[in-house]
Amino acid sequence: MGKKMIGRIREDINTVFERDPAAKNTFEVVTCYPGLHAIWMHRIAHYFWNHKLKWLGRFISHLSRFLTSIEIHPGAEIGRRFFIDHGAGVVIGETTKIGNDVLMYQGSTLGGTSMEKGKRHPTIKDGVVIGADATLLGPIEIGEEARIGAGSVVLDSVPNETTVVGIPAKPVEEVKRRENKLKHADLPDPIEDEINKIHQKIRELEDKIEK
């Protein structure tokens, strides 16, 4: 059990180096990365939550939020090599399920839309990247290798290898190969595209009228 735990800790630290070029050394990562601290504390809280010590799990989660500005409900299920970049303002709800190799930026929310019991938060598949300040609501499923643009509001499930942006989020392209980063500056604006199409149509009609 001890070797397994040490192995997971090493894996978490290596994930930081793989995902964040600003990471300088192991001491810095262990002491100065709130996303890493939040994940470690969540594992403890999740253990108690699953062993019928609900209050203790919630208390550890509450303490983690105070220390890291990241709120992860102890009931959330999180896979391996999950990395929260910067982290401030991240909220992950109780019935959220997160797969392996997921990258999540600051300010993102995995929230619910229902007051009913049962599954009410998103399921995030392997290799997903969630941009800064993105909001994902309800029991939707985000497919493998999908990309969520910064500031997007996602209300519907997203297919595998698809990038979505906007409010509400709409698909803009397919991801042809796996990337750890989401190039926010290069993402198209679907609303702007539609407006441009309308303008083009108006110009074509004006030309016809003049002729």
Summarize the structure.
With 211 residues, the chain is α/β, with parallel strands linked by helices. It is 37% helix and 18% strand. It has a six-stranded mixed beta sheet. It has a five-stranded parallel beta sheet with strand order 1-4-7-10-13.
How do the helices and strands line up, and which of them pair or pack?
Blueprint: H1 2-19, H2 26-32, H3 34-50, H4 54-68, E1 71-72, E2 77-78, E3 83-85, E4 91-92, E5 97-98, E6 103-105, E7 109-111, E8 123-124, E9 129-130, E10 135-137, E11 141-142, E12 147-148, E13 153-154, E14 162-165, E15 170-174, H5 190-210
Parallel strand pairs: 1-4, 2-5, 3-6, 4-7, 5-8, 6-9, 7-10, 8-11, 9-12, 10-13, 12-14
Antiparallel strand pairs: 14-15
Helix pairs in contact: 3-4
What does this structure look like?
This protein is an alpha/beta fold. 37% of the residues lie in helices and 18% in strands. The protein has 5 helices and 15 strands. It has helices at residues 2-19, 26-32, 34-50, 54-68, 190-210; strands spanning 71-72, 77-78, 83-85, 91-92, 97-98, 103-105, 109-111, 123-124, 129-130, 135-137, 141-142, 147-148, 153-154, 162-165, 170-174. The strands form 3 sheets. The protein has a 6-stranded mixed β-sheet with strand order 3-6-9-12-14-15. Helix 3 runs antiparallel to helix 4. It is elongated, with a radius of gyration of 20 Å. The model is unreliable at 175-180 (pLDDT under 50).
